[in-house]
């Protein structure tokens, strides 16, 4: 029996989207957005204490409970950040009231569709969730209507749609493989049923299906060389959307990919997804690390950092085994929290300086000390400095790799160092030095930023035993 | 049954033929007409599958394909073309000859990938899948070689035709999937429509290379 909380975390945001599309006042809209996001987070947190459940269309296991709580938590904090961010954009005249109604409605549809993708037990339904999330973010990226924003969202749309179509073809192939064993109808698309009989499925079909799914969902994860849409989409859209894209949507796509990896693990004669994921992860890490040096735009800089970290996470899951999976899960969480915190800081910083251009953001330490501390801590965390949680997970990934494949570990460390130096170099330019000319005070909501950083710090100092056990169980599931 | 097999086979192959015809259309209206023909063929294929597989719900899919892809979408695109005044020849990146050669190569690739697979499946299902994959790859090829936003839309829609072909060629693919495809096409189309106007508004053109000059970090 599926607990009522499962349909609730999908239906509540969907209903809220309808209400938000009608509410004329943007202040009220922002409040409703925040309240609904908080309510959804509270409901999803209750899933920690409900028994695991499976139905034809929904699935509740330890893997997706953890992700749904993370998803709704970041959704909630981003809605706080978003409220102050958009009121500033309104003053600037970059957005109008009409845009904001649309924006809030789309925000909730995005949350609903991501929750749908995470909780569905049917491959078709999961695909619909990811497709819908893609389309909502496409229109949100283009909301400023500047030429660069439209170019970015067109590119995102084309690449995202083609990716998602290829994933759909992969799903048809999975159905084709399952149908002789499970039978016709939606049972052959039900994840839990597929897991049971994957050993008997045609390995060639499964392998081909995985290739399509990897290219399809891999595009959404932003793995190199399928990442072309990601930096543009992050840079040109509103910053709350960059935070949700990096912190959540990339995770959801990776979640989908990992589900299929679990499916393939059940069949001995199928191609092994591990080495492919390891390679793509390493390529993304090294490539993004090098690209960090040439960035001129602050949001683009952190978008490339997201590619880098998705690479690290994919690498860890590709490596497999309880330890690497544990590290991957931890890194997924830490990256979500840290990267969204960084985007919260970056959003306010670019508002304060009136630009996203790195060359024009200088001397933040003297003009906006609190924001600059937020950014310094965030970048220190994402670069992997102790005592933050990202350090813990990266350290775990490195040590596990050294134990299993020392050669790969060297490549991994080189990639991490490249990215580390790039980020610190940029940070130094932003924070220190003479302040740039244009600079104005900005009303920033600092709570979400520092709550996220605090959590990352706490996780780095002491990971609660219960959480560690939870991750251990999920890591075993992932195989 | 052999008779039914021939009919659906013929129809799904004709969807592929129209994919080839789409590749070298020089004029916008020609492109749209070919797309309508492809959608009609698709709808007939799905209807024949509904008949021969004894799966009445596929008639719904056929009707959706006919209504949206052969009706509303081309009609709206035609109006967009007229309003924006872009009847002229479409620039392609490669020449016609090279594009067609690549198209043939992609079809061979699709057949060689799919046919050896799935021995448990009937021959017709495998052949349909090979056709479908060719149509998908051809749609991608079209999106790559065309430089105009509207012809990219047509490319994407023909790619989706390939998906519908694949989904309906397989026995008993659940209704959920068909609806999701229909739904996604609908939304995608709205987004596309919205965009074309915004693109035109901002760039004074729907040519992709004009847009690319505005890529962030390039200025």
Explain what you see.
The complex is a heterodimer of chains A (479) and B (219). With 479 residues, chain A is mainly alpha-helical. Chain A is 78% helix and 1% strand. A two-stranded antiparallel sheet of chain A has the order 1-2. The two termini of chain A are 26 Å apart. Chain B has one domain. The interface between A and B is large, with 53 and 52 residues.
Draw up the topology in text.
The complex is a heterodimer of chains A (479) and B (219).
Chain A: H1 5-22, H2 26-45, E1 53-54, E2 59-60, H3 62-92, H4 97-119, H5 123-141, H6 147-182, H7 191-197, H8 203-221, H9 229-236, H10 239-265, H11 273-291, H12 298-319, H13 321-353, H14 364-367, H15 369-383, H16 389-404, H17 406-431, H18 447-461, H19 465-478
Antiparallel strand pairs in A: 1-2
Helix pairs in contact in A: 1-2, 1-4, 2-3, 2-4, 3-4, 3-10, 3-13, 4-5, 4-10, 5-6, 5-10, 6-8, 6-9, 8-10, 9-10, 9-12, 10-12, 10-13, 11-12, 11-17, 12-13, 13-15, 13-16, 13-18, 13-19, 15-17, 15-18, 16-17, 16-18
Chain B: H1 2-23, H2 28-52, H3 57-84, H4 96-114, H5 123-145, H6 149-169, H7 175-203, H8 208-212
Helix pairs in contact in B: 1-2, 1-5, 1-6, 2-3, 2-6, 3-6, 3-7, 4-5, 5-6, 6-7
């Amino acid at each position: 029996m599926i607990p009522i909380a499962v349909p609730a975390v999908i239906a509540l945001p969907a209903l809220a989207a309808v209400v938000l599309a009608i509410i004329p006042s943007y202040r009220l809209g922002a409040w409703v957005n925040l309240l609904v996001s908080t309510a959804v987070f509270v409901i999803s947190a209750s899933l920690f204490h409900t028994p695991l459940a499976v139905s034809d269309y929904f699935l509740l296991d330890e893997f997706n409970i953890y992700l749904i709580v993370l998803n709704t938590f970041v959704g909630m904090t981003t809605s706080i950040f978003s409220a102050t961010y958009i009121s500033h954009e309104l003053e600037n005249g970059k957005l109008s009231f009409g845009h904001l109604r649309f924006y809030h409605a789309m925000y909730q549809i995005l949350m609903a569709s991501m929750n749908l993708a995470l909780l569905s037990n049917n491959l078709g339904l999961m695909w619909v969730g990811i497709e819908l999330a893609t389309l909502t973010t496409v229109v949100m990226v283009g909301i400023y209507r500047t030429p660069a924003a439209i170019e970015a969202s067109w590119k995102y749309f084309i690449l995202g749609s083609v990716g998602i179509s290829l994933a759909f073809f992969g799903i048809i192939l999975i159905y084709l493989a399952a149908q002789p064993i499970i039978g016709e109808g939606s049972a052959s698309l039900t994840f839990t049923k597929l897991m049971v009989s994957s050993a008997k499925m045609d390995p060639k079909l499964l392998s081909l299906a995985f290739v399509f799914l990897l290219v399809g969902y891999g595009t959404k994860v932003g793995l190199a060389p399928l990442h072309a849409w990601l930096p543009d989409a992050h840079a040109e859209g509103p910053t709350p959307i960059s935070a949700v894209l990096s912190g959540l949507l990339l995770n959801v796509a990776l979640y989908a990919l990992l589900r299929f990896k679990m499916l393939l693990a059940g069949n001995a004669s199928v191609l092994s997804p591990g080495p492919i994921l390891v390679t793509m992860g390493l390529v993304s890490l090294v490539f993004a690390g090098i690209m960090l040096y040439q960035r001129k735009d602050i949001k683009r800089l952190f978008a490339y950092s997201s590619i880098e970290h998705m690479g690290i996470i994919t690498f860890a899951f590709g490596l497999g085994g309880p330890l690497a999976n544990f590290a991957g899960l931890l890194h997924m969480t830490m990256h979500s929290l840290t990267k969204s915190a960084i985007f919260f800081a970056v959003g306010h910083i670019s508002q304060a300086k009136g630009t996203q251009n790195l060359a024009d953001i200088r001397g933040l330490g003297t003009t906006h000390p609190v924001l600059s501390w937020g950014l310094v801590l965030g970048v220190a965390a994402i670069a992997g400095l102790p005592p933050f949680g990202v350090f813990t997970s990266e350290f775990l990934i490195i040590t596990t790799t050294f134990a299993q494949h020392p050669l790969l570990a060297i490549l991994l460390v080189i990639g991490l160092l490249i990215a580390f130096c790039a980020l610190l170099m940029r940070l130094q330019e932003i924070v220190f030095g003479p302040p740039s000319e244009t600079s104005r005070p900005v009303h920033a909501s600092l709570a979400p930023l520092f709550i996220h950083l605090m959590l990352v710090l706490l996780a780095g100092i002491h990971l609660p035993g219960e959480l560690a056990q939870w991750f251990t169980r999920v890591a075993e599931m992932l195989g | 049954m052999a008779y039914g097999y021939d009919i659906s086979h013929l129809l799904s192959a004709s969807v592929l033929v129209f994919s080839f015809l789409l590749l070298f259309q020089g004029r916008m209206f020609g492109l749209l007409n070919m797309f309508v023909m492809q959608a009609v063929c698709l709808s007939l294929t799905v209807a024949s599958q509904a008949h021969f597989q004894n799966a009445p719900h596929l008639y719904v899919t056929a009707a959706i394909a006919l209504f949206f892809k052969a009706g509303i979408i081309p009609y709206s695109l035609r109006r967009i073309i007229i309003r924006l005044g872009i009847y002229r020849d479409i620039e392609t990146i490669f020449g016609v000859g090279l594009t067609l050669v690549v198209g043939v190569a992609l079809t061979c690739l699709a057949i060689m990938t799919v046919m050896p697979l799935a021995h448990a499946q009937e021959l017709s299902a495998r052949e349909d899948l090979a056709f479908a994959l060719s149509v998908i790859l051809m749609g991608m090829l079209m999106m790559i070689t065309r430089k105009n936003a509207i012809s990219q839309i047509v490319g994407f829609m023909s790619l989706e035709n390939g998906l519908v072909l694949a989904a309906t060629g397989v026995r008993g693919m659940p209704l959920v999937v068909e609806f999701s495809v229909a739904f996604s096409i609908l939304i995608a189309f709205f987004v596309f429509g919205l965009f074309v106007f915004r693109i035109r508004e901002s760039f004074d053109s729907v040519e992709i290379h004009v847009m690319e000059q505005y890529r962030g970090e390039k200025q």
